[in-house]
Amino acid sequence: MKKQIRKLIHRFENLKFRKKLSVLMLIAGLVPVGFLAFSMQYGMMNQLREKEQYNLEKMLEQSVSSIENQSQIYKNLVDYLSYSQNLRNIFDVETESDYEKYLKYVKVADPLLQMPTIYHKEIQSITLYSDNIEVPHGDTLLPMSEAENQQWYSRLNEGTLMQWSITRGVNKSIIASRKFYDNDTIKAVLEMRLDYEKVLEPFMSQLTDNTGGMIQDDNGNVTENKDPVLVKKTISKETSDIIKDYMLGVVEEGTGASAAVEGYAVGGKTGTAEKLPRGNGKYLVSFIGYAPQENPQVMVYVVIDEPNSAVQANSGYATQLASQIMTDIFPYLGIEKKTDSASNTDTQTTQTAQQ
Known about the structure:
By secondary structure, the protein is α+β, with helices and mostly antiparallel strands. It has 10 helices and 10 strands. The two termini are 35 Å apart.
C-alpha cells in the first residue's frame, strides 16, 4: 500500500503544471460531493432509525392503552358484581332448604356469573367462593376452602379492592379477584379468570420474528418474556461440538498452546495471513479463543497487523496477548476454574520448557 501511494505521488510530480491543476480541481470538486453524499446517507439512516423507533413506541403505546381499557372493563364488571345485592344474598342470607338454595343459584347466580363469559370471550369463568356454599355448583359457586387451595389466594392483600395476579404453569391465566368482608371476617371471594393469550394479544401481536419484549409488574418481576424467534440455524449442535473439540485441540496440542490459561479449558484458532504484495515479509497474525469449553462465556479476538519483529509469520504474538487478556477477564467475570481436571495449562508449560 505504501509503495502504491509513493508511485502515485511520483506520477503526480512528473505531470505538467496544467494537468496537475486539472487533477487538483477534480479532487477539489469530488471531495465536497463525497462529503455531501456521506452526509445524506448518514442522515437518511438516522431518520429511518428514528422513524422505526417512533413507530415502535407508538405501537406499544396503543397496545398498552388497549390492554388498560380492557382491564378497566373487567374492573367495572367485578365492581358491579361485588355490589349486586342479589349476589350478596346468596352468602349473606340463610335459606331454609337446599331446594331454595338451588333456585337462587340457578335464577340469580348463573345469569350474573355466566352471561359475561358469553359477551367477553377472554373471560374464561367467574366464580364466587363462600363458606355458605357447602356444595359446589358447577364452576360458578364453590366453598371457600376451594379458594384457599388456589395459588393466587395466598397473594391476596388485605382490603376490598380488586387485585390482579397471574397463575403459572402450562395453562397460564390472569386472575382478577376481590374479597367480601363482614366486619373483619372474609365472607366471600369473587374470582374472574381471564385467558392470558387473549388479554395480552395487543402486545403479542406487535412482536415479530426479529423482535422480542417483556412485561413487568409493579415490583419489577417479569410476567411475560418473549425472545426473538430463531429463523435459521447455521450449523447443528453436533457439528458445533465437533468444531469445539478441534479448537480445544488447537490450544491443548497445536499452534495455540501459548493461549492457554491456568485452570481453564480454552479453545481457539490461530491465523497467519501474508499481506499483498506477496514475498515482502509483511504478515497479519491473529487468534480467536473462547472459554470455558463446556459452557463458553467469553470470546476474545486478537489481531496484530505487522508485528514488530524480524519474523512476523508467528501467531504466537496474538496467542500470548489473548492469554494475558483472558487471565484478567475470567476472575473479573467470576468464571470459576476447573476442579475436575488439570485443563490445558500443562501443555503450555511443556511448550515453554521446550522453547
